[in-house]
Amino acid sequence: MINRTKRGMDMSSPSISIIVPVYKAESFLHQCIQSILNQTFKDFELILVNDGSPDNSGKVCDDFALKDERIKVIHKNNEGVSKARNTGIDASIGKYLMFCDADDFVEPTWCEEMINKVKDHSVVICGHYLNNQKANQNTISPVLLGNDGDYFSFKKKDIFPYYQKHFINSPWNKIFNAKMIKQNQIRFNESLSIGEDLLFNLDYLKLVDEDIIVVNKPLYHYVLRDTDSLTIKYHANQFDIYKQLFTEVYNCFKLFGVNLNEIKPVYFNLYLHALNHVFEHKFFKESKLSFFKKWKYNSMVLKSKEFTECLQNAQITDMNNLYVSLLKSQNYLLVYLYNYLRHVRNH
Residue 106 and residue 250: Cα distance in Å, rounded? Predict the structure, then answer.
């Protein structure tokens, strides 16, 4: 680990530790790091965790560390983004924690706006830009949900609309109290490749005893690149992952006092996505399962208590009536034939 900081000598701690997991990010890492170094708020350490990148990402990190004493670089074997973030948490010494992904970048006031609103037992959320490079679009996604002004707050029992709009899922639009995280051993689940961010945030929110504070400004740039992503890869156990996430979300929201009837329609769409995911054409080469095993797995999904229950509670007025009937029949062969013919017709 390269750690060139004056704080290493005078034992003082920065206000914020910013953790960036780095893997195969050589072409866009400069923009990410520079946007953090350009912050109007200067009292931070930047922890770059090189997760065994096979390209020159590690060298980029080291070069920046030689130029700025606030930067720590940790080089480790490739073990995934959750392990990289956890490694950064363990190495951090700041009072607060913030996260940034290596293929994204931030506005100059990202840190300043967030730390000005955070309290010892709270969490602050900010809006973001959605940068779609392939479509050359830059969409503003503020947190505003019927609220006026640059700042507002809401109670945990009212969290569902923000969860539904995906403002609860990610760590990069939030600032956390580091002491709360470390004392309660809150970590990213290293066994999951989907939803580990959400579970981390929910574990933290369980400890928050104040209203959730919102900076209603787009301070983070979430960049959709035309590259490989976990979100578009094949996951043979996607339904099982969604079941685990549903259980965690359900129990957590029950604790918060959320209306639980709102959750099941959301998870019906996720379960339906998992069902279609197994036979999705672009994943044929990635999946090693035979047609029979895929059919058997999806038959299990279709007949499962979780799928059946969510189907009954789903808002399906916008779906084809025939397709809904086929789902309710629990005959996956008919569902497969319907989807196959629809795919052929559309292509």
Answer: 32
Separation of alpha carbons 22 and 65, rounded Å:
14
| Tens digit of each residue's pLDDT (9 = 90 or more) over 107-159 | 999 999 999 999 877 899 999 998 876 656 678 877 777 777 889 999 999 99
Q: What is the pLDDT of residues 241-282, one digit of tens each?
A: 888 888 899 899 999 999 887 787 777 778 887 887 777 655
Strands (E), the chain: 2-3, 16-22, 44-51, 71-76, 96-99, 105-106, 124-132, 137-141, 151-154, 174-177, 212-224
User: Do residues 165 and 266 lie in contact, with contact meaning Cβ atoms separated by under 8 Å?
Assistant: no
What is the b/e burial string over 14-28, where b = at least 16 CB atoms within 10 angstroms of the residue's CB? Answer: bebbbbbbbbbbbeb
Tokens of 209: 């005893």
Query: How far is the C-alpha of 33 from the C-alpha of 105, rounded, in Å?
Result: 8
Report residue 329 as tokens: 């029949």
- Residue 216 phi, psi dihedral angles, 5° rounding: -85, 55
C-alpha closest to that of 46 among 12, 9, 97, 82: 97
Task: Please name every residue paired with 21 in a beta bridge, in sequence order, or none if there are none.
Answer: 49
pTM of the model: 0.86
How distant is the alpha carbon of residue 161 from its chain centre? 17
